[in-house]
């Protein structure tokens, strides 16, 4: 057999084209239905049945059980769903992944894709230049569809032709005739291949080609498909390494589900294969999936006969894949509580530490999977960020009336400093995450949303800085032996209360940006104007009070430093409101919120 390094590289390139086609299809669908997918995801936590259905739907849409499982791991990491709820979604994802197998097997063998791929491309490319973003996304999906089947065709063309080397073919046949040991061997091969390329769909396509050429019998091909179910768990495991204990538990639950499924499926392997053959023959009447291997080795079949046998074999493999995962789901869904107990035993939770408290909740390193869907995670993380900043503001309000030099003051001041450091880290980590999301394929609406979030993150960090500056001013006041009058304290309390009310009013808007009303925005703008007016009043009265010697000039300097810093803090809050306002107006296309824009801006 004359098989050069260039032929091998061509095979690798064909696999890469197949994987890239899947990626482009997935991202095109995400952009076309990003909001719909986020709505589906919100149903995850309702009950076990909804979790299963959600897992099936999401995986069928984005065509990657690895991507959907990584999302589940990140949601558990964020505390959006419990470990038990995540298991239901993971089980559903295993069934949803069979959708891709059916597409490949039916279209790859029943339809002559060579005659339709170029016409599809002729429609898809012009769609990429249309004005409507949804049309562009559908065009992108179709281009991914074409690449996927072009890759499948190229894999078929570039795999080595074992029939030209009888000695290799005979040695391969020897490995397929060792009885149950062959099942285990090909199962391991399926695990390894899938773990390396991190796509059970690509493994299915490769195995499909091997079986279609008659090099691997139907039962051994099924053993490799069974192995791919375990190999695909490597992706969420890698994703969970950057997460907390809950995320690692969700990933381990995925491993256990697929591994324990294989434990009971391997002993019953030949029975399941016979059942699938019976379904092919007696129920769907598509032919015996074993026939292709026998005829290909014996020779003498016509091209039309081989085509029919190839479809029967591919149909059987897809049916085997579906039966495995569906039966596994029907059995395991009733013992999710046992899975949770096993996972809790295997993955121990660390004791809660302050460092763990300051980690991101909703997004973690290594969790990037589906760009459109990651936006909702980032949005929730920003809400947590805002709540942390609000906690800083609350501590500053307490510090004003806490005697400096006491242990209570030192503890609170240290806490403010640690929160400020945490906010700095959060700003960088959220911004880096959003920049990675932008690096993926996003709809125009999603890109605008990411830009808005980056602005908000920057403003929240500025609010945290202002809180820290107020705390430092209180320390400097004490070091200078300056003392505030009752009038000073009263006005500081008033402006801090106004700022706290503005902060409290802003956070719900971040929680549900899509449903923010003009009245919500106006309420926040009014509060900012009230703070500006109060700052101006304090500035005027401060000069008068100093002239009247009601308090020393130095105390007046520290007093106005705090007043002006809090007013700056309120400006940063209204900058967040401006970002939300602009996003809403952009989405509405007709600027229906323009009447509430801050006149001072």
Give the averaged pLDDT, no decimals. 83
What class, by secondary structure content? mainly alpha
Calculate Rg over CA atoms. Answer: 31 Å
Number of helical runs?
A: 25
Summarize the biggest pleated sheet: none
Distance between the termini: 75 Å
Q: How big a fraction of the residues is strand?
A: under 5%
Q: Based on DSSP secondary structure assignment, what is the total number of beta strands? A: 0
Can you characterise this structure?
The protein is mainly α. The protein has helices spanning 5-32, 34-41, 48-62, 65-78, 83-96, 98-109, 114-127, 133-158, 166-175, 180-197, 200-212, 218-231, 234-240, 245-265, 269-283, 291-298, 303-332, 336-346, 354-357, 371-400, 407-439, 444-479, 486-511, 518-547, 553-588. Helix 5 (83-96) runs antiparallel to helix 17 (303-332). It is elongated and about 115 Å long. The chain starts with a helix and ends in a 13-residue tail after the last helix. The relative contact order is 0.08.
What is this entry, summarized?
With about 600 residues, the chain is an all-alpha fold. The protein has 25 helices and no strands.
Question: What labels would you give this structure?
Answer:
single chain, 601 residues, mainly alpha, 25 helices, elongated, disordered C terminus
Secondary-structure blueprint:
Elements: H1 5-32, H2 34-41, H3 48-62, H4 65-78, H5 83-96, H6 98-109, H7 114-127, H8 133-158, H9 166-175, H10 180-197, H11 200-212, H12 218-231, H13 234-240, H14 245-265, H15 269-283, H16 291-298, H17 303-332, H18 336-346, H19 354-357, H20 371-400, H21 407-439, H22 444-479, H23 486-511, H24 518-547, H25 553-588
């Amino acid at each position: 057999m004359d098989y050069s390094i260039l032929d091998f590289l061509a095979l690798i390139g064909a696999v890469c084209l197949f994987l890239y086609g899947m990626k482009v299809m997935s991202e095109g669908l995400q952009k076309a239905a990003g909001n719909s997918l986020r709505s589906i995801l919100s149903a995850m936590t309702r009950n076990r049945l909804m979790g299963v259905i959600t897992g099936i739907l999401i995986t069928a849409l984005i065509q990657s059980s690895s991507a959907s499982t990584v999302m589940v791991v990140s949601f558990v990491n964020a505390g959006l769903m419990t470990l038990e709820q995540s298991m239901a979604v993971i089980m559903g994802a295993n069934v949803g992944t069979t959708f891709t197998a059916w597409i490949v097997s039916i279209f790859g063998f029943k339809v002559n894709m060579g005659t339709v791929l170029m016409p599809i491309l002729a429609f898809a490319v012009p769609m990429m230049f249309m004005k409507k973003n949804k049309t562009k996304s559908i065009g992108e999906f179709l281009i991914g569809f074409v690449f996927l089947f072009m890759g499948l065709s190229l894999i078929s063309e570039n795999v080595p032709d074992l029939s030209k080397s009888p000695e290799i073919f005979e040695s391969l046949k020897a490995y397929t005739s060792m009885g149950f040991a062959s099942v285990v061997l090909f199962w391991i091969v399926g695990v390894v291949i899938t773990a390396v390329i991190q796509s059970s769909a690509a493994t299915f396509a490769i195995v499909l080609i091997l079986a279609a050429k008659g090099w691997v019998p139907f039962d051994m091909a099924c053993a490799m498909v069974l192995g791919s179910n375990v190999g695909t768990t490597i992706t969420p495991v890698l994703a969970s390494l950057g997460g907390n204990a809950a995320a690692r538990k969700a990933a381990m639950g995925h491993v256990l589900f697929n591994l324990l499924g294989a434990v009971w499926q391997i002993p019953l392997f030949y029975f399941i294969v016979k059942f699938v053959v019976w379904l092919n023959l007696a129920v769907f009447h598509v032919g015996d999936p074993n026939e292709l291997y026998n005829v290909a080795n014996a020779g003498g079949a016509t091209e039309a006969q081989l085509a029919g046998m190839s479809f029967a074999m591919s149909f059987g493999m897809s049916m085997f894949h579906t039966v495995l995962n569906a039966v596994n789901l029907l059995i395991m869904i009733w013992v999710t509580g046992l899975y949770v107990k096993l996972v809790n035993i295997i993955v121990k939770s660390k004791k809660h530490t302050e460092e763990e408290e300051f980690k991101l909740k909703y997004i973690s390193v290594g969790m990037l999977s589906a760009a459109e869907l990651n936006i909702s995670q980032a949005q929730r993380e920003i809400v947590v960020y805002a709540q942390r900043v609000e906690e800083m503001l609350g501590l500053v309000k307490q510090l004003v009336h806490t005697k400096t030099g006491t242990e209570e003051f030192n503890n609170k001041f240290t806490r403010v400093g640690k929160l400020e450091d945490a906010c700095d880290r959060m700003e960088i980590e959220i911004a880096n995450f959003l920049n990675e999301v932008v690096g993926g394929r996003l709809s125009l609406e999603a890109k605008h949303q990411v830009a808005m979030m980056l602005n908000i993150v920057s403003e929240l960090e500025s609010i945290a800085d202002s809180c820290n500056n107020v705390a430092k001013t209180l320390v400097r006041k004490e070091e200078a032996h300056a003392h505030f009058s009752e009038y000073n304290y009263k006005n500081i309390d008033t402006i801090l209360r106004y700022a706290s009310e503005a902060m409290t009013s802003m956070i719900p808007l971040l929680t549900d940006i899509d449903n923010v009303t003009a009245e919500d925005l106006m309420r926040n703008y009014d509060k900012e104007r009230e703070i500006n007016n109060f700052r101006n009043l304090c500035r005027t009265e401060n000069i008068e009070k100093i002239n009247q010697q009601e308090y020393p000039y130095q105390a007046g300097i520290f007093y106005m430093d705090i007043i002006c810093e809090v007013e700056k803090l309120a400006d940063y809050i209204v900058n967040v409101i401006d970002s939300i306002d602009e996003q809403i107006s952009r989405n509405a296309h007709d600027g229906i919120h323009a009447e509430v824009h801050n006149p001072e801006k």
